[in-house]
Amino acid sequence: MIYQGKAIRVQALGDGNAELTFDLQGESINKLSSAVILELEEAVKALQAQSDIQGLMISSAKDVFIVGADITEFHGIFGKDEDYLVEMNLKVHQLFNTIEDLPYPTVTAINGLALGGGCEMLLTTDFRVMAEGAKIGLPETKLGIIPGWGGCVRLPRLIGADNAIEWIAGGTENKAAAALKVGAVDAVVAPALLREAALDLLAEARAGKINWEAKRAEKKAPLRLNPVESMMVFETAKGFVAGKAGPHYPAPVEAIKAIQKGATAGREKAQEIEAKIFAKMAKTDVCFNLVGLFLSDQLIKKKASAYEKQVSAVKKAAVLGAGIMGGGVAYQSASKGTPIMMKDINEAALQLGLKEASKLLGKQVERKKITPAQMAEALGRIRPTLSYGDFADVELTVEAVVENPKIKAAVLAELEDKVAEDAIITSNTSTISITSLAENLKRPENFCGMHFFNPVHRMPLVEVIRGEKSSEKAIAATVTYAKQMGKTPIVVNDCPGFLVNRVLFPYFGGFIGLVEHGADFQKVDKVMEKFGWPMGPAYLLDVVGLDTAVHANDVMAEGFPDRMKRDEKTVLNIMYEAGRLGQKNATGFYKYEEDRKGKPKKVADESTYGLIEPLIKDKRELTDEQIIARMMVPLCLETVRCLEDGIVETAAEADMALIYGIGFPPFRGGALRYIDAMGVDAFVQLADSLADLGPLYHVTDKLREMAAQGKRFYA
């Protein structure tokens, strides 16, 4: 053994070759933590001390190669100043350069995921052999940074600037075939042949059949682009990427700048440029928040995994109520491999549900995500029925009938008599209390909420709602099924609106107040979209549907009358009573016309102002900052109340639910991170300045105490 550490070992293979293996003890994956980087430095020194090595293979003993740097260290490290970060990265560059400069050919055997720092590690070697099914990529821009360990330097020299920009700016994970096509790897083989193929490549290089030194020199030299080519590649890419990423996500464009500025330089100078831009990006609020979201997502996955260990996978599911929502649930289940019954009381509804599932699968075929055969297989997993005849072996049912408590209660009671005694029943309700729906059930312990967001196939969140009598088994089974469907489940406790809708309607309350004070709803939309929301509140209400919004608002008002009940009519009631339902009937705050793709396109409707006019109590001149404050303070305060009331267990889950459920701007990190970024004390002062607007703006005692003690929601 040449070297043995806790994450890396180096051993001679007996034929002049050595093997450096990543195998992080106590972990199922390899990652490049600070400790592992230090070990790698020692391992490389041990290699340099050997005089008889003629070739090196780098490999992994895990199912993955290296998933990247240890992101749990990022907040601590990125809290240092820019000079520290530049120096830190240059030290890693020196280490990676030492590997690249070893006096013999080198090859990496890529057996699984090789992302971020793991991908940058394998770029140092002369050759790369990749197993079928493995993926490589540089996803750093998704965390608000750029590749900082040579990705912006080596990848463009290996696959060309245009391909490298696509990989880096997009943060994509690239399959073996795609990597081979652009020249990122030299060969793709079956996993069982990976080791043999890598060693064969080394043997050919050692025998002089492949000029490994020429390959290495090309990778270390400046990019071969003349000034005209350079301008066309980089300036065009910056314009396109900036338009796609938007103003709130600077890292993709900064990555292109790093490639561009280093294109004419040698390796070390280009790495200095990369290190400086990396450090600048690491210090941004966007990076801080996106790293926080990654860590929160890991927490949610860990909690879901704990539930999954308690129960078996759901082998057969059912959905009650076909239509668009039922068809969406059926599609999602079937497309991810779980057979599902789809029941309704009339044939037309069943056909609508099947049509919805078929349409969604057809789009997957068009995009070449699946084959026609796979589409047929998925459709075969959906079994439409008008009866309960085959429900005896259904393990979990999703009730998705009309949002009416009496109808839901009747359907649930009927269903309970048709399924096995240990079957789990869930309700896809967006507002109705799970505890109240369970009142007429014989086995309320087997019942909980499973709230999907519309459209089901796009929205990643599923709220799993625990009623007063819901058992741990029911929650665990529902979380497990949500995971099987490819969703992110977050467990919340029962209350009107649960978590997401309970938080959303105070946001709409802020909008209602702005309209009554003469704010132009179109301006409010533009301000909030500029703030980062995918759509402003008026547009969002049109998408949700004014009828749905009025119903949900009534539920919220009954549940929280102190701050959500309004005695007089609001703009929601006025729009609904005028028959303006939003996108569903092409008229709401805006009118909707079909675009070339047949999708609803928003157009201004001046007649809306006439409807709103009688509601205006007084006209106030409001700045963009005042509009943002009046919209965001109620949403943030309600999120705080949900955390304080125990509706959601952690700040991380609360924030992720808002990001996944209603499109809270990810770069702002969620409502509670937004408060932290402002400072709890500053937020309390802002809310207090708006207190005359009503109880939606009144600060809780606990939050005021947090402000006084200088506390935060996140450490």
SSE map:
Elements: E1 3-4, E2 8-12, E3 17-22, H1 34-48, E4 55-60, H2 74-78, H3 82-100, E5 106-110, E6 114-115, H4 117-122, E7 127-131, E8 135-137, H5 151-159, H6 161-170, E9 173-175, H7 176-182, E10 187-189, H8 194-206, H9 212-220, H10 227-245, H11 251-262, H12 267-282, H13 285-308, E11 317-320, H14 323-335, E12 340-343, H15 347-366, H16 372-380, E13 382-385, E14 396-399, H17 405-416, E15 424-427, H18 434-437, E16 447-452, E17 461-466, H19 472-484, E18 488-493, H20 500-516, H21 521-531, H22 537-544, H23 546-559, H24 561-564, H25 571-577, E19 591-594, E20 600-603, H26 607-612, H27 624-644, H28 651-662, H29 671-678, H30 680-689, H31 701-709
Parallel strand pairs: 3-4, 4-5, 5-7, 6-8, 7-10, 11-12, 11-14, 12-13, 14-15, 15-16, 17-18
Antiparallel strand pairs: 1-2, 2-3, 8-9, 16-17, 19-20
